[in-house]
Write a structure and sequence with these properties.
This protein has about 150 residues and is of the alpha+beta class. The protein is about 30% helix and about 30% strand. The longest helix has 22 residues, at about 35-55. The mean pLDDT is about 90.
Amino acid sequence: MKSVNRFQISFESRSENEGFARSLVGAFLLPLDPVVEEVTEVKTAVSEAVSNAVIHGYRGGEGMIHMECEYSADGRVRIVIRDDGVGIENVEKAMEPLFTTNTDGERSGMGFTVMESFTDRLAVRSEPGRGTEVVMIKKLDVGYAE
């Protein structure tokens, strides 16, 4: 993917930064003149990835979330959300719908399922004790408006 524009940012692992990440991605995609529904899908996927990093990656504790986003002239968007938290023991199992390690019953275990349904490609790499990286690719039904 030949990038037309990209950014990288790091922010604290705090639940209020989920909205910040959503807004940032939405604003960043504006030059593509995207369809509202597609932007909403991308923003929702980003919310889920950031939320997973806050809740599961750092278990509500301190840490940094790293986010990269880029798009190409043909409307392909690539978003990477990475944390340096506890990591995932079994990624395949964690990606199953309704699977959650949360024992208080407040989480549905649908985060990866939502990310997968709102993107064209989802890849998750993780190593226990070293963090998790989520890579999402979405092809928007637009072209770059120069």
